[in-house]
Write a structure and sequence with these properties.
The complex is a heterodimer of chains A (about 325) and B (about 500). Chain A is mostly helical and about 325 residues long. In chain A, the strands form 2 sheets. Chain A has a two-stranded antiparallel sheet. The relative contact order of chain A is 0.19. In chain B, α8 packs across α17. In chain B, the strands form 6 sheets. A 6-stranded mixed sheet of chain B has the order 6-9-10-3-11-12, with helices on both faces. Chain B has a 6-stranded mixed sheet with strand order 18-21-22-15-23-24, sandwiched between helices. Chain B is about 30% helix and about 25% strand. Chain B has about 500 residues and is α/β, with parallel strands linked by helices. The chains are: A mainly alpha (about 325), B alpha/beta (about 500). The interface between A and B is medium-sized, with 27 and 31 residues.
Chain lengths: ~325, ~500
């Protein structure tokens, strides 16, 4: 027997599952809910679902960059909350400058995580757990632990979030732009290519002379940067910023990435798949409401979905020891 | 007593053991010698129950026996002291000796440390080591840890009624002379209660300690004799003993290197690995490094590609002094690396041929800063054609290619990156004969193009056949330099004399 047959079979099964299953699941879920609740399959309802999905998708798109190269970012929800606080506080005084300020805060936090991760050689889940604490505390201190309502004057700067363009809610358009840019980055830039290679075989990528540490730092910066963008959108839609605004988004975001078919060990998948994953999560959420599952029990469902999705798609040939 | 009968074992296309038979009698020390890759380690692992033979059998007291696992071998009295030590550094000596055997010390559901330590002390006494069994093994030096391993192997006496056979795999390669003397004294004393199989590159030691000697070559036992009948030169001859076919290595295509020096080392050293290495490498030259495991040649190879920066001495590349702190620094100045672990370091296996071929030179496939998949595939197709890579398409995943074709993809990667110096680390390992010859042909092509090559090869024949000049290393130093121009190539015996 050739030595790699077993590994090859696993890879092909995992690849096939990641390939087609998410789309089938999405179509199946939409059809199922459509049958149970005919009102669901109208354009208006679907547009509302997509608009509600945009922020989740943008956070998930960010963390996809990190998961692709085999890491994880647990700071995404804290960074998004911090960003909402910065926007809410700065809008009245600084106007549009609030947005780049919030984005920069996100990029900076992510770059910090990435640099600490590669320089001190600390596992990414520890570094980003710690960064999550830093971002949370910063948000609590800035807001004095209160929710900050964005007044009439501030809301004027938020029409690009709350409004519509050609009849489509603009958050959907922002989400689509992030998807397009993300897919393009992963497919046509050296960073995207190296990320895939690092996730699929880091030792060989290092031995090919790739500056692996640099790619990792960029990925964490992008992840937190997109989380900050999601925080801005959340602040706009809620007309407020709060240090806990994006809580409860970490689990569904990571679930969206994995359910979409990106391998949790990295190297396969991408942001296109995260679009599907985020839609699946959104439809599951809507479905749960229809079926009458208590809103507080929803995280339980996302937790189970995450476990099942990882169990199905994990590449056993690559993970020899699981800790 | 313990015998190996006609055992064969293959890994992929490599025949590691070919119809090997061997006898171990009670209370004797059997020496096992052979070049790198002769099959000694595989044979030891078969004896230790790590590998099951493909054909043939093991017999104990005349009856066939299947170990099935290292534990099975243990229960039949076989213990092994590994070359790469197997003690867990965060556990105490006693905990290591009885790892997995703690049940006997359990009282009221808890392990009695007192009993455990007392039992460990009895084992240590067998090797005359008066260590405190509570010491963590990370606090011991190499020689002391080896004594603990020996004590651990001897603890088998209490688990089995069988006569003990203890396998010593290169036990002396990391020891100072004083510690070797101690080890040998213990082995002689313990011969009353166990048999030993002693594997070593150092022939003088094998002659000193063994009662009988087996010589292996290319997976076969080529000779065995009582120690009284053996001499070092005779063993050398037996270890290499095959004629080299000049054309197999394309020697007629070996041309003199050009004058221009592209790499130069003076006094190069990595503490604890090798020291005082001097060499020059010219355009188009193939420089071979010969040495056994532990000679420092593996580390030297790693230094030249930035994995293990030198701690002393100078390295010049194209006249500029450099210290390569990472593979990316090495790649940036035109060095490429064909690793021994092709499937781990050579290729990103789950990605395509085209992606792997361009991984070290993405610049070349960008148009205005953006990767052009079209250009990438065209470039990859050119290499597939030029190097005759047998693959359904350039989109095929590398894990679906054979070893020889995978190696061509690795080579394309560096040719694509226009590397002028290539470090070949066991480039033909695991390849079948046809694929090997293709690699030899490619090495001649590269040499003709003025590419300079540093080669550590799988066999001495390969080193001699392919290289313009050869450094022999032993214990971290260069022991000899050979000119290997066609017609004046050194013999294998010349080389091995300076390696072991």
């Amino acid at each position: 027997m050739p030595p790699n047959t077993a590994a090859r079979n696993w890879i092909s099964i995992a690849t096939r599952m990641r390939g087609i299953a998410p789309l089938l699941v999405l179509i199946g879920l939409v059809a199922l809910i459509g049958m149970l609740k005919p009102g669901f399959l109208t354009l208006d309802t679907l547009v509302v679902v997509m608009a509600d999905t945009a922020t989740l998708f943008i956070i998930a798109a960010g963390v996809t960059f990190v998961i692709m190269l085999g890491g994880i970012d647990l700071s995404i929800q804290s960074v998004a909350s911090l960003s909402s606080v910065i926007v809410a506080m700065m809008l009245p005084g600084a106007g549009y400058w609030a947005f780049p300020a919030a984005l920069m805060a996100g990029l900076f936090t992510g770059a910090f995580s990435g640099i600490v991760h590669v320089w001190l050689r600390i596992p990414s889940f520890i570094v980003t757990l710690a960064t999550s604490g830093l971002a949370s505390a910063a948000a609590l201190l800035l807001s004095q632990a209160r929710s900050i309502t964005i007044g009439q004057s501030g809301r004027a700067f938020l029409t690009w979030v709350t409004g519509r363009l050609f009849g489509v809610p603009s958050v959907i358009i922002v989400g689509a732009m992030v998807a397009a840019a993300g897919i393009w980055i992963q497919r046509y830039t050296a960073f995207g290519r190296y990320s895939t290679a690092i996730g699929a075989g880091e030792a060989a990528t290092v031995a090919s002379g790739v500056k692996v540490n640099r790619q990792k730092a960029i990925a964490y910066a992008l992840s937190a940067g997109l989380s900050a963008l999601a925080g801005i959108l959340l602040a706009g839609r809620m007309s407020s910023g709060s240090p806990t605004l994006a809580n409860e988004l970490l689990l569904p975001a990571i679930a969206a990435v994995v359910v979409g078919g990106t391998a949790i060990t990295g190297g396969a998948g991408g942001i296109g798949r995260t679009v599907l994953g985020a839609l699946i999560i959104a439809v599951v959420r809507v479905g749960m409401t229809f079926v009458g599952i208590n809103i507080f029990a929803q995280q339980m469902v996302f937790g189970l979905v995450l476990i099942v999705a990882v169990a199905i798609t994990i590449d056993r040939g690559k993970v020899l020891i699981v800790k | 007593m313990l015998s190996v009968k006609n055992v064969s074992k293959t890994f992929g296309v490599v025949q590691a053991l070919d119809d090997v038979s061997l006898e171990i009698n009670e209370n004797e020390v059997v020496g096992l010698v052979g070049e790198n890759g002769a099959g000694k380690s595989t044979l030891m692992r078969v004896l230790a129950g790590v590998y099951a033979p493909d054909r043939g059998s093991l017999q104990l007291g005349g009856k066939s026996i299947v170990f099935g696992s290292p534990t099975g071998a243990n229960l039949n009295g076989i213990g092994i002291v590994f070359q790469e030590q197997s003690l867990l550094p965060n556990l105490s000596i006693a905990e290591n000796i009885y790892l997995g055997q703690e049940r006997q010390f359990v009282r009221l559901g808890l392990i009695s440390r007192q009993r455990l330590n007392a039992a460990a002390r009895r084992q240590l006494e067998k090797v005359h080591a008066d260590f405190d069994p509570r010491t963590r093994t990370s606090e011991l030096n190499f020689a002391a840890r080896q004594m603990v391993e020996l004590a651990k192997a001897l603890a088998l006496e209490e688990r089995t009624d069988r006569h003990l056979v203890i396998l010593l795999d290169e036990p002396t390669s990391m020891l100072e002379q004083r510690d070797i003397d101690i080890l040998f004294a213990r082995v002689r004393a313990l011969r009353a209660r166990a048999s030993f199989v002693f594997v070593s590159h150092r022939l003088e030691e094998v002659l000193e300690i063994s009662d009988r000697i087996y010589v292996m070559k290319d997976g076969r036992v080529v000779a065995h004799m009582p120690v009284a009948d053996a001499t070092v030169p005779q063993l050398h001859q037996l270890m290499v003993g095959r004629d080299r076919h000049a054309e197999y290595y394309r020697e007629s295509r070996q041309h003199a290197p050009r004058a221009e020096v592209v790499m130069e080392a003076s006094g190069l050293a990595v503490d604890g690995a090798y020291r005082e290495i001097d060499f020059t490498l010219r355009k188009g030259e193939v420089l071979g490094i010969a040495g056994v495991i532990g000679s420092g040649r593996e580390e030297l190879t790693r230094t030249l590609f930035g994995f293990l920066p030198q701690t002393r001495g100078k390295l010049r590349v194209n006249g500029r002094e450099v210290r390569l702190n990472s593979p990316s620094e090495a790649a940036d100045i035109g060095i490429g690396y064909i690793p021994r672990e092709r499937r781990v370091e050579g290729l990103v296996l789950p990605l395509s041929v085209a992606v792997n071929m361009t991984l070290a030179s993405l610049q070349a496939v960008k148009i205005r800063g953006v990767i052009s998949p079209k250009r990438e595939r065209e470039l990859a197709k050119r290499w597939v054609e030029k190097l005759h890579v047998r693959t359904p398409s350039v989109d095929t995943l590398c894990l679906q290619l054979s070893g020889g074709n995978q190696q061509k993809v690795v080579l394309s990667k560096w040719m694509n990156a226009r590397s002028r110096i290539l470090i070949f680390d066991h480039p033909t390992r695991g390849l079948d004969v046809g694929a090997k010859e293709e690699v030899y042909e490619l090495i001649r092509d590269l040499s003709d193009d003025g590419i300079a090559i540093v080669l550590t090869a799988d066999t001495l024949e390969e080193t001699i056949g392919l290289c313009h000049s050869i450094l022999a290393m032993r214990d971290g130093r260069v022991t000899a330099r050979f000119d290997a121009s066609p017609g004046s190539k050194p013999s294998q015996v010349d080389l091995i004399r300076h390696m072991v």
